[in-house]
């Protein structure tokens, strides 16, 4: 039994046995969450073809092991956006985490602190950012481009005052994707879940059927976001600016030309445009376009330490984790720690068996595409 941050009792379920994979954790979480909440966490846009493609394309990448490389003590340590990290992963921004567990973002931030990885605070957090800063975790702050420019400036100020190390602007959400599970469920957040100005915004009228969150985002998201706004953003903050949601190599090249500090190859976990390519399929062309002018991170579909190594082998600088963290969050802070522990063990195992004593060696691994991944990215052999 745990307590909520207001002191009221809150039962925290525990997995029936020690999980061996993220899939084990997901199967357990599915039995603990209300069906409509599970659909909100796991669902994607449209018929969820992009959501599935993320997984299929990752699974079709095979790494060619090196041998005789002395992997007695492999190291997963790296640097992400100038900050040391114990693994090449950060937690992606995910809204309203108290929907999953009463401690929500606090539980995730504390687990990230212990694991030595960054935590990206969602612009739609259900826990104020100053409370998350008090955990001592390395924080990045997500931005959405709101129609209220003053609100964007306010979030920037809050991020700087909280000691965040970077600003991550999601550029792939001019409006929320058409998520059929949420529409069919008429999904609505429980009262009191949202924090700050967002709480009032959820009550705003909208015209879209189904999900109240979709109706809400219609009222606050600015679809006029363009490259001039990126220049404005860079002038407003001293923090590194990261663009999240890049898939086209031409946009990646523009981002580098505009001097952004990093990009994240992302299709929003298949939750925005159903019909987009997988992120792992888009990665090689993006890397070619950027040409080492800024770090390139990636998210969407990652479920194992082997998946993480696959991304590193193809040239990514790190991976942002989404749904696996929410699966673990069903068990609170301990559940998130279990998820990260499983992923680290899998990553160490994959590095050992492929001859990688450190993550620099991963970039030298050869990779092959199994039959079924069409078209095969030209950068892979």
UniProtKB/TrEMBL annotation:
Work out whether the entry's keyword set contains Oxidoreductase: yes
Q: Which InterPro entries match?
A: Aldolase_TIM, Alpha-hydoxy_acid_DH_FMN, FMN-dep_DH, FMN_HAD, FMN_hydac_DH_AS
Positions of the FMN hydroxy acid dehydrogenase domain: 14-372
Cofactor(s), names only, from the UniProt record: FMN
Q: Where is the composition biased (Low complexity)?
A: 1-11
Where do the record's region annotations for Disordered lie?
1-20
* Keywords from the UniProt entry: Flavoprotein, FMN, Oxidoreductase
In the record, the note on similarity to other proteins reads: Belongs to the FMN-dependent alpha-hydroxy acid dehydrogenase family.
User: What name is this protein filed under?
Assistant: Alpha-hydroxy acid oxidase
**What is the native source organism of this protein?**
Sphaerisporangium flaviroseum
